[in-house]
Amino acid sequence: MQDDKDIKLNIAPTPAEESVVQDDLASVAPNEAQASEPVPDAVAEEKVDKDLAENEQTTSDLNDPTAKTLEDIMEEEAEESETQPPSNFSLSRTLGGAILAHVIQSQIKLVLLITLFLIIYITCRYQCQQKMVEIDRMEQQLTAIRYKATVVTSFLTEKSRESNIMDMLEQKGDSTLQIPKDPPYKINVPE
Predict the structure, then answer these.
(1) At a CB cut-off of 8 Å and minimum separation 6, what does 138 contact?
(2) Distance between CA atoms of 98 and 69, rounded to whole angstroms?
(3) Do 158 and 164 touch, CB atoms closer than 8 A?
(4) Extended beta strands in the chain, E state
(5) pLDDT tier at 33 (50, 70, 90 boundaries)?
(6) Taking residues 3-23, what's their average pLDDT?
(7) Do the beta carbons of residue 52 and residue 21 sit within 8 Å?
(8) Long-range contacts of 170-173 (CB under 8 A, 24+ apart)
(9) Are 49 and 24 in contact (CB under 8 A)?
(10) Residue 29 pLDDT > 60, yes or no?
(11) For residue range 70-118, what is the model confidence (pLDDT) as tens digits?
(12) What is the C-alpha end-to-end distance of the chain, expressed in Å?
């Protein structure tokens, strides 16, 4: 039960209980007339309240052996409110979140399963995007390396031409190498 909240309970007596109280007051009145000193109103009210409480207890025990206590009634109401779906779908309940809260509470396992799948989906998508970014970066590097290889190959081809080699040799002063004037021929070697 909730200890933090004060519970105010107003009990209205039934007509039978009222007649019992009036009889008690009638029996108290002759006793007061016999007493030499008058009884203050507060004391009389306390006595009446005490008698009323005793009568209620005895009548409830005698009349109804299955009488429910306040705690039993509160527990039943709490159980009913937990199990019964909201009966009215008003705009204030919808905007207030009561209907959504009830749906989530009744389907908590499904909500957790969907949340788990969403987390897995988001994680896989993030990893896929990271791999695609890495693939794009590597493709750009490959293209840059291919351009560089093409430039180096063309530079090497330029430098290895016969005319460029002869010009280089003449600039260095090495005249022992010359361009042959006779066509090349095959030498046959016997085996």
Answers:
(1) none
(2) 30
(3) yes
(4) none
(5) very low
(6) 59
(7) yes
(8) none
(9) no
(10) no
(11) 777 777 777 766 655 555 667 777 777 787 788 888 889 998 999 999 9
(12) 114
How high does pLDDT run on average in the chain? 76
- Phi and psi at residue 176, in whole multiples of 5°? -75, -25
Say which residue the tokens 């590097």 belong to: 141
Burial class of residue 73 in the structure, from the number of CB atoms within 10 Å of its CB (0-12 exposed, 13-18 middle, 19+ buried): exposed
| Residue that has been written with the tokens 């590597």 in this structure | 138
* Three-state secondary structure call for residue 20: helix
Say which residue, 30 or 144, is predicted with more confidence.
144
pLDDT at 32: 47
Torsion angle, alpha carbons of 119, 121, 124, 128, to 10:
-130
Residues in the chain: 191
On whether the CB atoms of residues 151 and 143 are closer than 8 A, the answer is no
| Cα atoms in the Cβ-side hemisphere of radius 13 Å centred on 89 | 5
Can you tell me whether residue 103 is helix, strand or coil? Answer: helix
